[in-house]
Amino acid sequence: MFLNRRHLMAYAVLLTPLAHAADPVDNWPARPIRLVVPFAAGGANDLMARAAAEGASKVLGQPVVIDNRPGAGGTVGADIVAKAGADGYTLLVSAAGVISNSMIKKSMPFKDDALQPVVMIGLAPSVIVVPKNAPYNNLRDFVEASKKGHGFNFATAGTGSTPHFVAEMLNVKYGAQLQPVPYKSGSESTTAVLGGQVEGTSEASIIALPHILHEGKFKALATTWTQRISAYPQLSTAVEQGFADLQIAHWAGIHAPKGTPPAILDKLAAAVDKAMKEPATVEKLKGLGIEPMGGSRPEFVKFADAERKRLGEIVKAANMQEK
Known about the structure:
Blueprint: H1 5-21, H2 24-27, E1 33-37, H3 44-60, E2 64-68, H4 75-82, E3 90-94, H5 97-104, E4 115-131, H6 139-146, E5 152-156, H7 162-174, E6 178-182, H8 186-194, E7 200-204, H9 205-214, E8 218-223, E9 249-257, H10 262-276, H11 279-288, E10 291-292, H12 297-318
Parallel strand pairs: 1-2, 1-3, 5-6, 5-7
Antiparallel strand pairs: 3-9, 4-7, 4-8, 4-9, 4-10
């Protein structure tokens, strides 16, 4: 059929809005977003994910659904997202393991670059704790005491967990004699301290603070983040106590499959950043011992790159690789 110029212009006018409407980037999100949490419900990572999901959903105008997929130190959930479509609808609530697992595990089901950093959600500062009746009043006392005799057993939530890194940082940087004892979870680690099976552990503030402030079962020696915990400001940081290299926290961010359009990533990062600055969210999270962060995509990329370098040095020096 012959089409003259007038006909062609008419078709162009009709098709232009359809083409625009079909653009997946411009229309994102057009349906619910799935946030895969690679840990069980109730922990610091999960609680931060739910706060981000609720806030981002309001900004983006679509439901953000939490999907808990625990296992293998976060690798099970991360693998699901690494192999998902790069369309912005399946995302990972990441933790330190997304950076350190490949350094430690014998094999991984995906490559590091299969996931890309999007935005920081928040962090739960780590707290080094000992039994209430322990004779140590600060981290220096604990480290020096560990150098005597056979050293101390230090509970961790498994190989490569934040408490494992805390122990090895103290060993490598400050000559402590801490033997990491792996448990299946942070709750099991804290139970081991309460039961006297180990001399101490390091746990996320959201888990440790109730035992310290309300139940009085733990003695806190230091927090291992760069700033004091908003919900427990009387506890000094390890840096303040002279341990300048002991800086680590239980953080949560968002990673996306490689190839996700930058425009989608920027829109998501802006939504989470806005959610983490909402006064009600800030008050709620800080009350639990969690510090809301947010920020831009470049800031989170910079953080992830710095953590990869820093933690990699500890893994190598402490020989943390799985045998």
